[in-house]
Amino acid sequence: MSPEEKARLAIDQKLIRSGWVIQDMKNLNLFSAMGVAVREFPTSTGEVDYALFVDGTPIGIVEAKRTESGEKITTVEDQSARYAGSKFKWIKGDTAIRFAYEATDKLTRFTDYHDLKYCSRTVFSFHRPETLRALLSAPDTIRNNMKHFPPFDTTGFRDCQIRAITKLDRSFSENRPRALVQMATGAGKTFTAITAAYRLLKFGKMNRILFLVDTKSLGEQAEREFLAYTPNDDPRPFSDIYGVYRLKSSRMSANTQIYISTIQRMYSILKSEDLDESAEETPFSEYVTADSKAPKEVVYNEKYPPEFFDCIIVDECHRSIYNVWSQVLEYFDAFIIGLTATPDKRTFAFFHQNVVSEYSREQAIIDGVNVGEDIFLIETEVGQHGGYIVKQQIEYRNRLSREKRWKQMDEDVNYTPSRLDRDIVNPSQIRTVIRAFRKNLYTILFPRRNEVPKTLIFAKTDSHADDIIQIVREEFGEGNEFCKKITYSADDPEGALSDFRNSFNPRIAVTVDMIATGTDVKPIECLIFMRDVRSKNYFEQMKGRGTRTLSKDDLQKVTPSATENKDHFVIVDAVGVTRSKKSDTRALERKPSVSLKELMMNVALGAKDEDTLTSLASRIVRLNAQMTPSERKEFQEIAGASAGQTAQALLDAFDPDVIAAHAGVSLPEEGEPTQEQQALLDAAQRELAAAASAPFHRPEVRDYIENVRRNHEQIIDNVNLDTVLFAGYDVRQEETASRVIETFREFIQEKQDEITALRIIYDQRYKDRPMAIAKLKALYEKLKARNITVDRLWDCYAIKQPDKVKRGTMVQLADLVSLIRFETGATETLVPFAERVSYNFQQWSFRRNAGAVHFTEEQMEWLRLIKDHIAASLSVVLEDLDLSPFDRKGGLGRFYEVFGEDYEEILMELNVELVA
Question: CATH assignment of 143-366, given 3.40.50.300, 3.40.630.30, 3.40.190.10, 3.30.360.10?
Fold first, then answer.
């Protein structure tokens, strides 16, 4: 066939798959089907390659070109426009054509001439006849509707969200197909996206929107946010206005407006294949790298054609737009919105550099949308330098069963830190880190807490996580509820995650990847890194788990001793993660070939191509040679066939003789099989490939093979006991502390007049003190508006001048006075106000009791209560004595009885002396 004939054949197939009946002029019957494509239909300006008729009416044309014309296909648009404006022969009335396609066997472009600024665009295939009929009956096009978005009510929206939504409106009105929302973790990306979806459905008149995620947990989180959303212009919840459905099977109803799905499930739906649900539990970026040789080509699906969705919103798009997965996005004729906090150069390129929001984490911290972090380093001897074990009898542990046994080492082992917790386990190293964390927890890291702040530990592997959990419980002397593992392999990970987010226990959670990205746990105040991360973006995502803001009331629900809004979090770096060199993306950390784990997951996700299955067979053959007899027996019990049989089945799926035998076809000695024979051979090949792939759909088979591949036994190093080399704040924290203190210094200069008025607190006009306290409260609110709290300031001074700062019980308002006096040089040391009041009370009571008259025990009880009240409130007045806790002792009346005529003098003296 000529190139033109090959192109026409491919175009015919595309039209047929899309629901069109193809006819030649001599067999013309425009009413034989809803949609009829007529070849070589005559017009007043020549014959058009295909004329498209719906219900007997001409509505579109197709200009067909050979493959080589793809690079200049846009030059054919003028020819299409000429035909579209032509008179169709034998057709009466107006025959102005609305839809035009330019197509080769590889490429299809589409134009709707009713768009105000019509512009051709690439589509996966032709639209179905019923789709074009619906477009003809619609009042206007989606693209025209989006040119008239009304302003939206900004009540309840942050400035960054308002900017993003406004720019999204403009991007859509300009017919830009892709838009990127770059917004810091915690700034409200999903809320912004739901608002955009609402506007697209209501004002753009879109039919269906797909919200794509890459893990099941993120899908559940998105579903909760959609269900909780209520728009400003309608009192009904979103889900009462539009249908919201999270896909849990391969079935999609056309009557729903919002679909939430993992990209893995959507891919399986388009391929009409079953999905191994475990594939939804781990980010697919973990399995498929940029150099993967396992193509996952999406094909046309008549149930869900490319026009099924009008818009796709891609959550965490820095992970889900690359490599094979981009086909899911490019299959649909839809606008694409990307959401991410950590884009890289490839992200910007994919979205055509159309960034509608650039809201960095740094800006979010400045705005008080996020909180910043302090970095606390724990460096240990083994963690920094590894260890050396002389050849001897030593303990080994099976990675899977965790069974231990003693055996003789073959040689000395000199291990580096990178081997820790993989094939070498040194419990002392883990214990030393956890012990150093516990030692500094209440003295330096969180000195005003009565319980461990919500803490997330990042482990290297599940095995490492188990070791950490056991040691954490031992070192803190706590039980199972105190520290739990939250990984995909744990029992009820979603339940444990919910408890970690909403309940008092667990106080410490250990994870590998499950909540490293995307998942909200706002009460987290401490992240402990016991694994290094080489990806800049991934590290930023992990840090994002601690950066969420939280009010004092909400924080106290899970951490009762919290005294302020969450204003920062702490990174405890036990592996040098904050200092290690990082690449821009995880995908750059690729191996020279696809790993066994990747190959198996590719098969589980539906790949059945020759490269993938034969590569997997080769790995199984290699593994079979390394396995012990007992392992081979266990392989057969779990997989249902031996490793050799499993590998052979994978190879047989592409063996022509095996395929022919399975199909019952005798291959000709010369020439190609007939069309009927080839159909039988193709069906047989698919059956063999499906049967060979079946064992790898089961997670227990994949897990067993992956664990066999690893070194089963870990050396337990009980020889090298670890020691702390350094535990303290990163020197770079001094820069952060300096910035906070400098901001406070500038604040004092700006508010000099207001601060001068506060001296009333220290003079003898204590009756004017309530007025000064009211001013102090107003001043503190202004300071907190700059995202600076008393606790934060105190910590910063402790970092900069530890020898002059004393820790103790903090009282927010009163201690602001201590900070102001310290910064202005009125005092040389920074001591909590309560301690100063206690010291002054002790000195005053000694002086008063040194004379002839001593206070009675009841009088001292009253005086101690008054002392505590002044420490908390800076002052005491007569009216306070009728309130708690004084009312329990009889109130003002009893105070008068106890102190007699001197009662007012006593109060005045305490107000002056204790605050001095």
Answer: 3.40.50.300
